[in-house]
User: Fold this.
Amino acid sequence: MAEQPALPTDVTPALFFEQLLPMGFAAQAAAGRSQSDVTLKFVVTGEHGGTWRATIAGGRMTTTAGDGPADLTITVSEDDWRDAVLGRNGAQLSLIVPQRRPDRPDNTPRIRTLKGTIAQELSREGVEPFRVELSFGGAAQPRCTIRMKLSEFLDMQSGKLNGQEAFMTGKLKFEGDLGFLMQVSALTA
Assistant:
């Protein structure tokens, strides 16, 4: 997403998903950054959490509170969500809101072809690991868990670190279905 102004530390998931996320999307669309049609579901666990669906269709995003089918479901704890939204403890918004790198093609339609779940456990200094789970097509299997340092994962997201290199050098460790992990990694190729 484009650079956004700082959010207040007491921002709620409801305010973020129902108002701020669609406003940020509209700003990007106005700047000419197109996005393919997709439905995302965000599940924030914790006292002030909830479930929100963001539907992108025809270049517009609408969000609704509540459950329903989605191409991709992102599940995160309220504490990790807050760290990502506020940019705290090494986290960034890109950890929970899928980003398209400007130098890469839009692979959003490929999301609909995937079935399975990938859990990410990203270690960081001084606090618990950042944990997020991505479920494609609502399928629990195949399943894969990746573990790596949060800073190195962000480098991989931005293209500074090659995923194959991270795996070969032991920076990225995984358990589970390697084939599924390779399919997910192809989304950023």
User: Anything to note?
Assistant: The chain has one domain: 13-188.
